[in-house]
Structure prediction request, 562 residues.
Amino acid sequence: MKDIRKMLKAQAKGVLPDEKLKESIKQELGYRAAEEASVLARADGGSEQVKSKRKVMFPLVAFAVILLVLAIVLPLALPGSSPTVLPGGNKFADITNADSFYAYGAASVGSLLASESDTSPVRAMKDGAAQEEKHIETVNRYMALVEGLLSEDAIETTAAEGAYGFEYGMKIGYTDLLGNAAYYTLYYNKHFLSSEQEEDETEEEYAIEGVLVAEGKTYPVSGNYETESEEDETEGELFFRAYLDDAKNSYIEVTQEYESENEEGDQEVEREYVYSRYENGKRVERTTVEYEAEEGELELKLTIEQENVRDELVFESARRGGEMVLLAEGKLSGEDVRFTVYIREGGYHYVFEDGSSSDHDRYDDDHDDDDDDDDDDRPWRGRDSASV
Amino acid sequence: MKDEHLEKNVEALRQGNTCAFDLIYERTNRAAYFTVLYLVHDKMHAEDILQETYLRAMRSLSQYRAGTNFTAWLCTIARSLALNHLKKAKREVSTDFEADAYKFGTCEAEIPYLFDLAARILSPEEYEIVMLCQVAGYKRREVSKMLGIPIGTVTWRNNEALKKLKTHLEEDNA
Prediction:
């Protein structure tokens, strides 16, 4: 059955109708001329509604992609000396111990950091439009993470030699929705917290401190993995944090919100990951990522909270006309939105419900953690050169 | 189950908002296309008929009863045009064997073998669902909404279609 599915998918492009057909139909119907007239009217000072809607959609989409990339990379980061492959699908299900948690943390935070550095600043514009643009930029920062989390490809982690003065090293690799691999490296020391012997395996819990190498830059990191089980309930304090300044007042942190309850023999597990961004000790953004299974099909829900605004988007991956896309649906600033993101080499192409579209850079170039970037001016760089 | 957003856009188009056509096309073209391809087995003709389907449908949009099922209405037009095409092709006596090779079986079908096989052995419903789910990439939930049938039916027909294709391919190989 799987082979039949693959064969159908592989041959789809040769069967599906030409994408130009729509334009041809519109031309025949005279819709094309009407649209051109509408564009001219807008250029002449008419409504900018279409444009602004597009701007709102764009940050959300980008945000989702970043989240996806992070999710893929992190699970790969902390395995032992031989490569560990975590299966695709729901990546959270594979986070079962300190190693896999830190791997996930490193990968997802790493992709957020890498995407962040690519984000262009909000341009000067009218208040309303600037707000919408801000939304789009925010979403854009999470698009890589969304891509990674929805990818069906496996995440791999391989132990590496310690560096930067840290004893352990771990290389985390993930594949995005277009099949391109990205790598991050975590160097760290362990601070032992507890251990538990289960049959032949020893489960260790430990905190870490170290550095994360992402896109040629190094970030100081710390983490904690500590769980508590009491009768039928499991809780824990788990976080992974990458610092953005020397004073460690600004950072991006991922925490696992995890609750497991066993009621009358039924094990119910709820798990979500929360990404928080702190600036000068104050939390400025909080994003929750959780999987939802809808009729057996995996979706990713993002809830982004900034100041008094709460945005929600649900993403799922699909194919349209032979291309990989993310379908997004939810609320932005209280407004219902729905859009499709075409994931292409070098860029995201957003198509909105009103037919408008927008293009944005995609975080997909030089997925490498070699920190040989001489132009890097971050203060915490320069201790050692790390080549993995 | 009804695709309210699609209905909203159909209404908007009826009111003269031509921008609504993009979404209508995106939501419906695959279903209409596979309805046609199932019958004509030829990509080029299927595309021509698909174009004609939209031209007819958009020009007679006032005849669509709002809130029923726009995709189903469109597919009815598509099926009717495809059948007309086949009737016409049957009546015609071609003298150009190269141009009309698809009618005479004098060349390889333009669509890959697996798709041709699917059109021959699957029921129209199974064919449409397997094409929408496996080829066009729609989620079963979306297909359910699109065709106005329960998602359980979509899943079942999709699996049945895949099983049939597998069995036939295995028999072919044997």
Summary: Confidence is low (pLDDT under 50) at residues 100-109 of chain B. The interface with chain A takes residues 5, 18-23, 25-26, 29-30, 33, 37, 43, 46-47, 50-51, 54-55, 58-59, 111-112, 114-115, 130, 134-141, 151, 155, 159, 162-163, 165-166, 169 of chain B (CB under 8 Å).
